[in-house]
Amino acid sequence: MKSTETIIWQDWDLSQIINGEEIMSPSPKTPHQKASRKLQRILEDYADDHNLGEVWDAPMDVIFEENYNRLQPDLIFISKEKEEIVQEWIRGVPDMVVEIVSKSTIKMDTVVKKEIYERYGVQEYWLLKPEKRLLEIYVLNNGRYEMYASFSENDVVSSPLFHELAFKLNIIF
To answer: Where are the domains of the chain?
Structure first.
């Protein structure tokens, strides 16, 4: 008989399939989790207050192509217009994803995953860099990501997707 811990671990899968290759990741460290939790709260409150859709957090699979690209962004926004893609996992293209970058994930988040999100048409891509106290927001323009803005910790964050959203970046660190 399996222990309860084993069963829980099996349900909490930190693997992703990236360009056909399964990638296992350790759980995030506390600065990552703190920033994720605070940013999620801000985005959820905004989405709820404006009746826009739902914000999801990792681990939640976003399946672009079965057995080829199944990613787990740190945060995911799905608008009401796309709510049908939320099934047992997310099957389709989210409106926005957030990746929280750490030393061990720099290339994966800033190059590999960014290219995948761009290829599948995720409209807005946020790269949060807690160690640098920086947020970069990219928007899709003619099928390519362009930097919308880069925010340092004392800047007020704004987003094309969330028109009236405004918060000082330092509150999430």
So the answer is: 4-172
From first to last of its 173 residues, the chain has per-residue pLDDT tens of 444 444 343 445 678 888 888 888 777 888 899 999 999 999 999 999 999 999 999 999 999 988 788 999 999 999 999 999 999 999 999 999 999 999 888 999 999 999 999 999 999 999 999 999 999 999 999 999 999 999 999 999 999 999 999 999 999 99
- Is the omega angle on the peptide bond into residue 160 within 30 degrees of 0, that is, cis? no
CA distance 151 to 136: 6
The residue to which tokens 């997310």 are assigned: 90
Topology classification of domain 4-172: tt1808, chain A (3.90.1570)
Q: Which of 172, 161, 136 is nearest to 36 (CA)?
A: 172
Whether 126 and 96 have beta carbons less than 8 Å apart is answered as yes
pTM value? Answer: 0.88
